[in-house]
Amino acid sequence: MMLNGALFLLVCAAARAAASGGDGPLLNGNFEYAPNRSQMNGTRVMAPNAIPYWKVTGFVEYIESGARQGDMVLTVPEGRHAVQLGTESSIRQQLSVTRGKYYSITFSAARTCAQSERLKVSVVPGDDDVADELPIQTVYTSSGWDSYSWAFKAKQGVVSFIIHHGDDHAEDPACGPIIDCVAIRALNPPRATPHNMLINGDFEEGPYITPGSPWGVLVPPMDEDDTSPLPGWMVMSYSKVVKYIDSAHFRVPHGARAVELVAGLEVALVQEVATVPGSSCRLQFSVGDAANGCAASPMRVQVATARGSKSVPYNSKGTGGYTRDALDFTADGNSTRVVFYSSGYHTTSDGSGTLCGPVVDDVSLVCVSRPHARRLLR
């Protein structure tokens, strides 16, 4: 689906900049404030501070939707302008944040001419100031644009957020991904309760989703020590993602947010929960489809813990709906890992090649000691 550029421009311009601590686009996060032409050589940005509110290094181009790069016509999902990061280049912006608080960054990216393009994101100061690499080799939408999320814990009240393109094997130094509509959201993770031992089991807390964006936000794989854009949950994979979706653009089983498993067996959604050995546990959850044309009979979600697993089928017509299911098990350790993954690979029925899959939502876990187990399992 092509986006209405004017609509996105209004959305991004109307939102107040998040560099002062609010949720929404960063200052000039949609790059609609242009550099002075005297600081450019054609499309290349020549001065580090030429793009308002950003600092650039390396081969960075300021591009306009519809411009040509060889045989390729460049497109921009939000507004009219974006930046393209060439070999060993970066963009950075200084953010005012609250020390000790967690934040999620969302930005849109499109791969262009290099198959091995790699994006790294980081904040300085941060955890050892090490950049995390986001996998952008797989394109999940037919438009060629995907939105990615990344999270960090603020070490100071002022930090620099950096997006770096480090593909030093490209034959063309100008070749690299296009970046647009960068936004931030402060994360407020919910706490576990006796009624739900999982954190953020309803997925209501997560990365910023740009209003009007029809494709959701990808949550990339992460190490177990990384800060998650989806509080409480880890995405376990080598290079694949899950998709964070909202009820404004998709059908979700419960509340306003959910997760779509778009990468089949190659990725799992995981949470580690503290449990008491020998306690009786019930894991409840919803499985459905996002009303995005992801039709399959059936789609299957695999649900697993250390002491049990279950394959949950869902006959999807791609028009929305869900089923509720449960998995009962006995905890055998001080922690229990809850795992969800899709056992199949799916694309939308419109023939566009957009990757899709079953939706997981409204997940709860309750464990009780054996004397109370009968009441739990009624």
Helix content: under 10%
Tally of extended strands? 28
Low-confidence stretches: 1-20
Main pleated-sheet profile? 6 strands, antiparallel
C-alpha end-to-end distance:
47 Å
What number of domains? 2
Quick structural overview:
With 378 residues, the chain is mainly beta. 4% of the residues lie in helices and 43% in strands. Strands 1, 5, 8, 10, 13 and 15 form a 6-stranded antiparallel β-sheet that branches. A 6-stranded antiparallel β-sheet has the order 16-18-19-28-21-24, with no helix packed on it.
Structure description:
This protein has 378 residues and is mainly beta. The protein folds into 2 domains: 183 residues, Galactose-binding domain-like (Jelly Rolls, Sandwich); 160 residues, Galactose-binding domain-like (Jelly Rolls). The protein contains 2 helices and 28 strands. The strands form 7 sheets. Strands 1, 5, 8, 10, 13 and 15 form a 6-stranded antiparallel beta sheet that branches. Strand 26 and strand 27 form a beta hairpin. The longest helix is centred in the first third of the chain and has 10 residues. The chain is globular. It starts with a helix and ends with a helix. InterPro entries: DGR2-like_dom (IPR006946), Galactose-bd-like_sf (IPR008979), Pectin_Meth_Modulator (IPR052437). Its main location: secreted. One of its GO terms (molecular function) is enzyme regulator activity. This is DUF642 domain-containing protein. Pfam families: DUF642 (PF04862).
